[in-house]
Write a structure and sequence with these properties.
The two termini are 39 Å apart. With 224 residues, the chain is an alpha+beta fold. 25% of the residues lie in helices and 39% in strands. The strands form three sheets. It has a five-stranded mixed beta sheet with strand order 5-11-10-7-8. A four-stranded antiparallel beta sheet has the order 3-9-6-4. Helix 2 packs antiparallel against helix 3. The protein has four helices and eleven strands.
Length: 224
């Protein structure tokens, strides 16, 4: 078992080498995550080897799941935010139901995430994760900073993060109703299945909410 873990760790290091982030001089939209240059075939091959080692009781299934995990490491992500409800309107609604007062510190009254906002998506297509957020500013503490983190996990090894992206919300849209969108361009050849996912929201450095779900991926579009 220790030998298997050693081999798995070595292959994981190769997986990281297969997917490297390279700065680009091309202009990006506000909030856009820097794209990753990745050898998808190599990443899938390494991921499959890791899966076969880890899932000793079913090496074939482990290899397939691991290949999906490796390919997912090559996903490209773009994150954007937009305001859906003015802060003044959210404040008014809160005051109306709280004797005209605001909370002492900012609170998140709504935090919902749809992990397949456009329905299940095929490998090679664009998946979408959308969070709807409502933030009430504090009477004694404004919303100075807000960020959302998206994590998609390896289905075979709980806790292993396949992809991770973070979106810092611009100052102009940090209060009121906000919609965060993560567009994930899935690589070709990614294994079909459900990938556990989580979004976490931080306001002024404090954890303000957490959602969990599943990113469901159908077979490659080239196979239909």
């Amino acid at each position: 078992m220790n030998f298997a873990r050693t081999i798995s760790a070595a292959l994981a290091a190769l997986l990281l080498a297969a997917c490297s982030t390279t700065p680009t001089t091309e202009p990006r939209e506000p909030g856009q995550i820097e794209e990753t240059e990745c050898n998808a075939s190599l990443a899938a091959l390494i991921g499959g080897a890791i899966g076969a080692i880890v899932m000793e009781e079913n090496r074939t299934r482990g290899a397939a799941v691991g290949a999906g995990f490796g390919a997912l490491a090559c996903a490209l992500i773009n994150a954007t935010s937009r305001q859906t409800q003015p802060p003044a309107e959210v404040e008014h609604e809160y005051r109306t139901s709280h004797q005209g007062r605001l909370p002492e510190h900012p609170i998140v009254s709504v935090y919902d995430t749809a992990y397949n906002a456009g329905g299940s998506v095929r490998a090679g297509r664009r998946a979408r994760v959308v969070s709807n957020i409502t933030v009430v500013p504090g009477a004694n503490e404004p919303v100075r900073e807000m960020r959302e983190v998206l994590e998609v996990f390896d289905a075979a090894r709980l806790g292993e993060v396949a992809i991770k992206a973070e979106k810092s919300v611009d100052a102009a849209t940090r209060a009121g109703g906000i919609q965060d969108t993560f567009d994930i361009r899935l690589p070709e050849g990614m294994a079909e299945g459900g990938y556990p996912a989580r979004t976490t929201l931080y306001v002024n450095g404090r954890l303000a909410g957490e959602n969990r779900g599943t990113l469901r991926v159908l077979g490659s579009s080239s196979s239909v």
